[in-house]
Design a protein that fits this description.
alpha/beta
Length: 253
């Protein structure tokens, strides 16, 4: 019997892994042999639920609380993860926040909250994880957004943060490809998560959004997780600096 799994024995650190896309990536990677560091900020019960699911598969997993908008919190997290798992092979920068606010109503406090979480957090998570990734010749996968590619009139600060993620991906891939570390991004379109599922049932989305998606369906969290699995595995060993669109054809740039 062949027990080979595509991520066998890899240690994967996933921010924002308590629910939604992050939890789905954790489950998919766990099913494929990885050991999972589940990082959360506020949703401890959901993080523990993801851990229990992974352990039911025989997957090694643990939960860690971290405010990725704060550098000292990131440093503490990485010390704990390294102590627990002894190495880090893959970083998934997934954690993010969004609030739809008209441009002229966005406050400095709200702007800082969005940018510090979505962009600053990913930046310093990558910076402080690289010492481990250089040893393992690992990879980074950043979760961007279609809003960062075409602009988002309802959340321009969020879109700016995700555009920054795409640029950061390109910069880091150029810097670290010669040292064996790959860096890629995934840009999801309309994805049905627990938080968003009711929005997609509204008449507006059915009339205005769905017809603009060539595949004529809202994406699933598993669509993003499967793309992440490909980018994390040796199947994508010659791919770096890329942004993979998972959007049903909604944006083709």
């Amino acid at each position: 019997m062949n027990n080979y799994k595509i991520l066998n024995d890899k240690v994967v650190l996933i921010t924002g892994a308590s629910r939604g896309i992050g939890a789905e990536i954790a489950k998919t990677f766990g099913e494929n042999g990885a050991k999972i560091a589940i990082v959360y900020l506020k949703n401890k019960n959901s993080a523990q639920k993801t851990k229990r699911f992974l352990e039911s598969l025989g997957t090694e997993a643990d939960v860690f609380c971290c405010d990725i908008s704060k550098v000292n919190s990131i440093k503490s997290l990485l010390r704990l993860v390294a102590k627990r798992f002894k190495k880090i092979d893959i970083l998934i920068n997934n954690a993010g926040v969004i609030k739809q606010t008209p441009f002229d109503k966005i406050t400095e406090r709200e702007y800082d909250w969005i940018l510090n979480t979505n962009l600053k957090g990913a930046f310093f998570m990558a910076q402080f994880t690289l010492s481990y990734l250089l040893k393992s010749r690992g990879s980074i996968i950043n979760i961007a957004s279609v809003g960062g590619q075409r602009g988002g009139p309802k959340a321009p600060h969020y879109s700016a943060s995700k555009a920054g993620i795409i640029s950061l991906t390109r910069s880091l891939s150029n810097l670290y490809a010669p040292k064996g570390v790959r860096v890629n991004a995934i840009s999801p379109g309309q994805i049905e998560t627990e938080i968003a599922k009711d929005i997609f049932k509204t008449a507006f989305y059915k009339k205005e959004v769905l017809p603009k998606i060539p595949l004529r369906r809202i994406g699933k969290t598993s669509d993003v997780a499967n793309a992440a699995l490909f980018l994390a595995s040796d199947l994508s060993d010659y791919i770096t600096g890329q942004t993979i669109n998972v959007n049903g054809g909604e944006y083709l740039g």
